[in-house]
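Bit of a strange request maybe. I'm writing a small parser for structure token strings and I need a real example to test against, not something I typed by hand. Could someone generate the tokens for this chain?
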Amino acid sequence: MMKRLDREFRAHLAQSDPAMCHLVKQNQALALPARRPPFEGLVRIVAGQQLSVKAASTVFARVTEACGGRVSPESVRRCGPLGLRAAGLSQAKVLSVLALSEFAGPGARRLLNACERPWDEIRPQFLALRGIGPWSADMFAMFVLGLPDVFAPGDLGLRMAMERHLGLAKNQKPAIYDRRALVWAPYRTLACLHLWESLKLSPAGTAGS
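Reply from user aminoacidic:
Good idea to test on real output. This should exercise your parser:
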């Protein structure tokens, strides 16, 4: 599956974007992220906002431990604000995680049901959640839902790679990067993975909320 998708992606780029095709040829085939439990994934993203990859991983591990080994709406509420703060979350992130637990509902059923709908339809609903901005929503779509055609114009690493390899001027508005990425559809997630790979960066921690 991964090899077939990679062949399709490269063939698409050969027709639509020779510059990006040249960059991708320098990398091996990359797999799309596997789907993760949505609530745990949301909490992981919030915990990692504005942190390095290593720091984000450490904080999320502490949150998981504080929640009894499993991050769920119920375990988050049992842990409470003091427990989440002691695990290393800022006050703003504590409030966000608690709000997410309310939104997700018992057993995260409300969140699971939402995730069954088309992403374009539910993205505004996620952006309305406390602490979830465009970058966090895009990371959720890519790395939790495993969607194949997502681009994150707010990600610093992606912008840096596009400036370096695709000739974009520095520090453009996000819409400029978004428009440049349209030619990669319906493989924009794979394109993002290759751009991060070109800088040897992980996406986590490269932007804000």
